[in-house]
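User: Here's a structure from my thesis project, written as structure tokens. My advisor, Dr. K., wants to see whether a designed sequence matches the one we expressed. Can you design one independently, without my sequence as a hint?
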């Protein structure tokens, strides 16, 4: 397994606009998973031009004996759920649609119990183990060559940081604060993507940067996206009196990347 801090460099074919649709918190084979909607999403992504995804963790519900929730709330045993997800994602892998993958806290249940990482197993099955990271994922995302003044060069590059997310918090603001604080520790990122909270949010904070060329301190913004889940309300959130949230089947979140090396544009859409 590759080190979390080893950056993944991905070059995709040139397009004026490239769409990134990260997915996570599917909780496949949970009784609350809206699996039909997720399968429809995968089929739609296969048909989209210049569109890619990052797997953000908790792709499997993966209830084990030590889980807070009962294992009987899953509709399939973990080893079979793992194979189901691998087969579902196989067409995306074959078309080069997956640019990276992370584990989530639900996959880490197996790490705790048996030193097994089902998400890593899935990526190995797809021959994509080189773009899997256990805790954090950093992608240097490059949009392919375009010709400028008779020379071919990369159209644009984006530094993308991904983390499944951590911690509780009954309200959306708690997750936003935690994620933005983490973003401030990452220098020179353009986009931070998180999951875990099941509460979709889009923000655009900035931090002051030293610019030696202009000899001025200038604000450098970065985009923050927390994606929604593919799970209906109930179970643990209901037990803990947590507020319901919009789900991904109401509309998957996406980032549209465009522009050039000197004027990069990120449009977050929900």
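Assistant: Designed independently from the structure alone:
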């Amino acid at each position: 397994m590759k080190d979390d801090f080893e950056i993944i460099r991905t070059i995709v074919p040139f397009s004026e606009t490239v769409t990134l649709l990260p997915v996570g918190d599917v909780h496949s084979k949970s009784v609350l998973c809206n699996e039909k909607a997720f399968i429809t999403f995968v089929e739609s992504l296969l048909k989209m031009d210049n569109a890619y995804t990052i797997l953000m963790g908790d792709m499997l519900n993966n209830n084990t004996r030590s889980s807070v929730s009962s294992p009987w709330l899953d509709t399939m045993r973990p080893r079979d759920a793992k194979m189901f997800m691998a087969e579902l994602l196989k067409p995306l892998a074959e078309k080069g649609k997956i640019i990276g993958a992370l584990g989530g806290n639900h996959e880490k249940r197996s790490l705790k119990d048996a030193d097994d990482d089902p998400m890593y197993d899935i990526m190995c099955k797809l021959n994509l183990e080189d773009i899997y990271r256990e805790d954090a994922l950093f992608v240097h995302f490059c949009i392919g060559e375009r010709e400028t003044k008779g020379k071919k060069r990369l159209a644009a590059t984006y530094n993308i940081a991904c983390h499944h997310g951590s911690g509780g918090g009954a309200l959306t603001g708690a997750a936003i604060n935690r994620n933005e604080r983490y973003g401030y520790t990452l220098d020179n990122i353009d986009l931070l993507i998180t999951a875990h909270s099941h509460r979709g949010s889009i923000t655009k904070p900035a931090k002051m940067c030293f610019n030696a060329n202009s000899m001025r301190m200038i604000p450098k913004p970065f985009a923050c996206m927390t994606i929604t889940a593919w799970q209906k309300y109930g179970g643990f959130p209901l037990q803990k009196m947590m507020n319901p949230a919009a789900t991904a089947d109401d509309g998957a979140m996406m980032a549209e990347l465009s522009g050039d090396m000197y004027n990069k544009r990120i449009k977050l859409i929900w």
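When you compare it with your expressed construct, this may help: The mean pLDDT is 91.
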